[in-house]
Amino acid sequence: MSMAIALTPRDQVAGHFGKAAAFAVYDLHGQFVIKIENAGSRELGCKHKKVIQRQLAEYGVSEIVLGNIGQRSLARLLNAGFKVSRVAPRTALNDVLTGSVDKEALTSAEQGRDCKREKGACGCGSKKKATVAKVGMSSLAPMSGLAKIEGFKL
């Protein structure tokens, strides 16, 4: 059982789970285990969050400390059995490790932030969009039988 802390490049608590530069993993005694870099997040879309979750599980992480998290990501972590805690973004890593900051336990997905994008815009769901019908337009065949409309020739 260990704890992972979402970090910025300056070793402060990251403002958002998916945008953290890295995750520092510590054991029960506060000893550093490993730093998991969050590389390639732009290329993978939202899939990188699942990759991070898998890596954290491989290292036996039971608690994740972060600044903020979206509702869908929070639901996924809670369903996987992680304990998720929130502290103020940009809190110093040492303050988290010493316990000098209050941690808010996140126990339901509703405590996460709303997704700013519609499902599918970030790669999480279907990217298919409904086609918009244009009034007066037909792509099947040109109009026939009309010679003039209000003085204009076709």
Describe the 3D structure.
The protein is built from four helices and eight strands, in the order βββααβαβαβββ. It is elongated. The longest helix has 12 residues, at 47-58. The protein is an alpha/beta fold and 154 residues long. The strands form two sheets. A six-stranded mixed beta sheet has the order 3-2-1-4-5-6, covered by helices on one side. Strands 7-8 form a two-stranded antiparallel sheet.
Summary?
By secondary structure, the protein is an alpha/beta fold. Helix content is 20%, strand content 23%. Strands 3-2-1-4-5-6 form a six-stranded mixed beta sheet, with helices on one face. A two-stranded antiparallel ribbon has the order 7-8.
